[in-house]
DNA sequence: TTGAGTTTCTGAACACTGTTCACCAATAAC
DNA sequence: GTTATTGGTGAACAGTGTTCAGAAACTCAA
């Protein structure tokens, strides 16, 4: 039995701050943990229980701070845009500015596993993202595009980024031998497969086997981006009708 | 107790063909049922158990014909292309041909609920789909495009179709009051929201509120498609380098 | 017709999932 | 120092994909 008024001697007392000061949960910490789980387990492995385990906490504790798994995913999506600065629109260099915007977007989407899947499932019209949308619109306006094009060009570009990165990650998932010469092997296999098709029935696939596979994803992204930008540029100066 | 050797009298025997002749399961029937469930319950409600229930069959019976839920989804994806005929390439009218291709694709994606979600998760390079890819490539070749553009233009177009329809359905899900004046109400609400933003911080959003929302999805799809086609067309005649 | 063999389907189980709810502990307010 | 309020617990519920021993139905040869 402990004597209530006696001081506990140092060797009895566990080292100071035995129980860590219980830094409380918060949306921020939950999102951090969710990203950790996402990177480790992928989108399908991202469960509330895994997130809770990452924080050494019971599942139900999460629901104090977050209504849903949907809300958690929305918070993760929002973070995608943190510190995503768009420059002031420069009418002289709007194409290069948009190129940079798209490159930066792709880089962000690639920075977390399966991020494109999450991005694809959300519309960038939540209040937190509106300043972003506004600045993007400003760049199209500065370029001298007609209203109707301004109104959809941002969507077009975003869809391209999301879709491209999503497809990148689909291929990656098919060849999960992470690291090493996996991409090399993948290239060879796919190229060999295309090249081995009957040339009478698939002349173009056989012919294009090398160029379809040889080019890096970076190159393909840039080319697709350039196609879209040329298409948009073709509207510069057209009246609003 | 039944007497084993006595014939059962007619009034005892249930009416002829009591038990229906047990049309056996097949991949086709399973995919049919899966589509029925998809249209009724949406992608999140599409479970193996629901599909089994649709067929009045135990869940585990499905696994005799189908390895995975993944395989089932792949079969559903494949069916998207059934009877999806591409015309012979006509160098004079390749743009109109591609427009039709995209329109038809969107129509198919819209013909089943959440179909775009399934389509987005698959790469159109399964053996069954290669003839399709081949014909699409042929159209780009006929248009006189350089190899590198041919190699990615199909992807670009498919990504656009999938992404556009997916976004359409995301909006639809946000306003699930099916039928009636729901789209009207949606338009008004969104437009009102954009218009109500502080004009000093969001001048472009406020300015463009009407044109961003007023236009029908059909119109927006056509415009985005036209942008991409113009971009592609800008490469006609360029050398393969 | 009988019987063997193969295919197809069943029911139960396993290990998960998201979400809720009564309860308990720690903190903040008076 | 006692009371609220908030944050966290553990168990439970209904649902998920998938597997597996065994029963039922079909096929085909004797």
UniProtKB/TrEMBL annotation, chains A, B:
Highest taxon, organism lineage: Bacteria
Organism placement in taxonomy: Bacteria, Bacillati, Actinomycetota, Actinomycetes, Streptosporangiales
Region ranges (Disordered): 1-23
Biased composition (Pro residues): 1-12
Listed Pfam families: TetR_C_1, TetR_N
Record domain HTH tetR-type: where: 24-84
Protein name, UniProt field: Transcriptional regulator
Keywords: DNA-binding, Repressor, Transcription, Transcription regulation
Organism of provenance: Microbispora amethystogenes
Keyword Transcription attached: yes
DNA-binding feature ranges: 47-66
């Amino acid at each position: 039995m402990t004597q209530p008024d006696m001081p506990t001697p140092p060797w009895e007392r566990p080292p100071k701050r035995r129980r860590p000061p219980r830094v409380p949960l918060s949306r921020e910490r939950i999102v951090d943990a969710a990203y950790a789980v996402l990177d480790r387990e992928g989108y399908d492995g991202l469960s509330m229980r895994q997130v809770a385990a990452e924080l050494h906490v019971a599942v139900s504790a999460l629901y104090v701070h977050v209504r849903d798994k949907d809300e958690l995913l929305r918070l993760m999506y929002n973070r995608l845009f943190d510190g995503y600065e768009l420059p002031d629109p420069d009418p002289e260099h709007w194409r290069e500015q948009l190129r940079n915007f798209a490159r930066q977007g792709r880089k962000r989407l690639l920075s977390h596993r399966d991020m494109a899947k999450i991005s694809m499932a959300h519309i960038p019209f939540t209040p937190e993202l509106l300043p972003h949308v506004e600045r993007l619109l400003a760049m199209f306006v500065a370029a001298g595009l007609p209203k109707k094009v301004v109104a959809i060009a941002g969507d077009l570009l975003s869809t391209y980024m999301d879709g491209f990165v999503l497809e990148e990650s689909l291929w990656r998932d098919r060849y999960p031998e992470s690291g090493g010469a996996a991409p090399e092997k993948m290239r060879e296999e796919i190229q060999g497969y295309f090249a081995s098709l009957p040339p009478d029935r698939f002349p173009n696939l056989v012919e294009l086997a090398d160029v379809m596979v040889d080019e890096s994803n970076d190159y393909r992204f840039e080319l697709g981006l350039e196609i879209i930008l040329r298409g948009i540029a073709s509207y510069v100066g057209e009246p609003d009708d």
